[in-house]
Amino acid sequence: MGREDRFPVWEASLLAGVAAAFATGLVGVYLSMPHSDYSFLKLPRNLQELQILTDHLEDYTSDYTVQVLVGYCAVYIFMQTFMIPGTIFMSLLAGALFGQIGGVALVVFAATAGASSCYLLSKLIGKPLVFLLWPDKLGFFQKQVAKRREKLLNYMLFLRVTPTLPNTFINLASPIVDVPYHIFFLATFIGLIPAAYVTVRAGIALGDLSSLSDLYDTQSIALLFLIGVVSVTPTLLGKNEMQHGTSSSEVAASGS
Asked: How many CB atoms sit inside 10 A of residue 86's CB?
């Protein structure tokens, strides 16, 4: 087995160290909270469990705002970093606890921080995992990034707004295909706002949700795709202008 196909000891130690840092933060939050029964504190797997968690945390949010915020961010960033499913429930929770503006700001911050953590971790040790899980998708992504290098921010925005590629894959594969971190950061920060708005708005009326499919109605999906099309338009226009310029040069050269 080659060097690129296995995780050396130091890389496994790095993963363990990052996980330990998050765990330490959560323990600190727990110790600063009043003595009580915290058996309700678990990652929700469905809307019913999310409603139970929300009902309990509402009692703490006003009196222990800082602890709830730190705990929320630590859990969200940890989930994003280590690709743990369920962040959609965390986004709904933000809306239920902090309202529209506060919820969107919190979700965008935590999601961007978690995606950045995943990006940086993948840059160090993620290459074998991405090649193992998505070899074909990685090749496609690499070709698209190479073709759109001059308008890469627009293309990355398009990917963030639309479900063209999974966010987990984008987080892990971006450093491998040489997407610069500043492009990745801006596209993530800006591109996640529309989806965060939709999810947080649904979290405010959590009791009205019967399933996750209620989150994205036809209007919401159409809006997200419209934003995606607008974001990628400069890339397409730039490509057409380049092709037109090349054709004109060829015509001029043949005429001379």
From this structure: 15
d(CA 218, CA 50): 24
Say yes or no to pLDDT of 220 above 60.
yes
**Two tokens, residue 46:** 């469905």
Question: In angstroms, how far is CA 7 from the centroid of its own chain?
Answer: 24
Check if the beta carbon of residue 191 is closer than 8 Å to that of residue 156: yes
Q: Is 5 exposed, middle or buried (0-12, 13-18, 19+ CB in 10 A)?
A: exposed
Say if residues 6 and 128 touch (Cβ distance below 8 Å). yes
Output the DSSP codes for 49-105.
HHHHHHHHHHHHHTTSHHHHHHHHHHHHHHHHHTT-S-HHHHHHHHHHHHHHHHHHH
| pLDDT per position as a tens digit, 168-217 | 999 999 999 999 999 999 999 998 988 898 899 889 988 888 888 777 66
pLDDT per residue as tens digits for the range 127-170: 888 999 999 999 999 999 999 998 899 899 889 988 788 999 99
The beta-carbon contacts of 49-57 under 8 Å, at least 24 apart in sequence, are 50/89, 50/92, 50/93, 50/206, 51/206, 51/207, 53/93, 54/93, 54/96, 54/97, 54/206, 57/93, 57/97
Instruction: Name the CA dihedral angle for 108, 109, 110, 113, rounded to a multiple of 10 degrees.
Output: 120
Looking up tokens 């703490």, which residue turns up?
A: 60
Rounded to 10 degrees, the C-alpha dihedral 85/91/92/94 comes to 140
d(CA 34, CA 246): 69
